[in-house]
Design goal:
277 residues; alpha/beta; Rossmann fold; 2 domains; two-stranded antiparallel sheet; elongated
């Protein structure tokens, strides 16, 4: 099977970036670097059982990231699997804001941590900070712990196994400088309309309840007590949720709301404070 044939199969299956994905699969499964790939004869055969299996799964729209077993996010690389949401570039906006706004020596929490990409990328760029990373699922939290080790921040990454919606233990004893989260925010009724790739991700990481706001209500009304008086929330939101989450924030005593849009111009991250600094 040649590179051109792989590209054709992916393209025929509706994969937009067929050439790029074909190159990533060849590198991961056949050890073919991009330089070697483009220097090779056009008829070079790369056939292997592993490649054929991965290609068939990708043709069925199973996520490329899960097939590769790792993905890049911010300036780090993360192990990923079907136990976690795939890290996306839009979430880098939240990381950028946290890196910029956290005070020196900050302690923060990353709730619904998943792969750990938010907390770990902040810790990697801000070696003066410390994080609590909470997730409900043991396999997901173990994945995040491996990612913290992989990226050299395990000594400042405190994993916490608990259910954000029904916690069994207090989050922390000392107040935090910030709470970060990319919670599930897709309305339950919208889940069947998602792309096949997204539907392959954990439903628990997507389902935000009837109106998509279930986790925001809990975060703002149940977790504000863990913040310092001048602490802040940084929350990823759906593109059409800014007004609704801002309204909840004001009701919860966080009237200062700052919105950041993603690289596509869509509402993406809200910074919430009790007062102007």
């Amino acid at each position: 099977m040649t590179y051109s044939e792989i590209c054709q199969r992916l393209s025929a299956s509706g994969i937009e970036n067929a050439k790029g994905e074909a190159a990533r699969l060849l590198e991961a499964l056949c050890g073919v670097t991009p330089e070697a790939l483009f220097a090779a004869p056009a008829e070079q055969d790369y056939s292997s059982p592993a490649l054929e299996e991965a290609l068939a799964r990708r043709e069925a729209h199973y996520p490329l990231q899960y097939l590769l077993g790792e993905w890049e996010f911010y300036r780090q690389t993360y192990e990923v699997s079907a136990d976690c949401l795939i890290p996306r570039s839009d979430t880098e906006i939240l990381v950028e804001e946290a890196i910029r706004r956290l005070p020196q020596g900050a302690r923060f929490a990353d709730l619904c941590t998943g792969s750990g990409c938010i907390a770990i990328s902040v810790l990697a760029e801000r070696p003066d900070t410390f994080a609590i990373a909470l997730d409900k699922f043991p396999r997901t939290l173990a994945l995040a712990e491996r990612n913290a080790q992989r990226n050299g921040v395990a000594d400042r990454f405190s994993p916490r196994l608990d259910d954000l919606l029904a916690p069994k233990c207090p989050l922390c004893a000392e107040p935090l400088d910030a709470i970060l989260s990319n919670p599930p925010y897709i309305p339950t009724s919208a889940l069947p309309s998602l792309s096949p790739e997204v539907r392959s991700e954990p439903e628990a990481a997507l389902d935000g309840g009837e109106d998509g706001l279930l986790f925001y209500r809990t975060l703002l009304f149940a977790y504000a007590k863990y913040l310092k008086e001048d602490g802040f929330f940084l929350l990823e939101i759906g593109y059409d949720q800014a007004e609704a989450v801002e309204r909840l924030a004001r009701e919860a005593g966080f009237p200062v709301c700052r919105l950041r849009r993603d690289y596509g111009g869509k509402d993406r991250v809200l910074l919430l404070r009790r007062s102007e600094r």
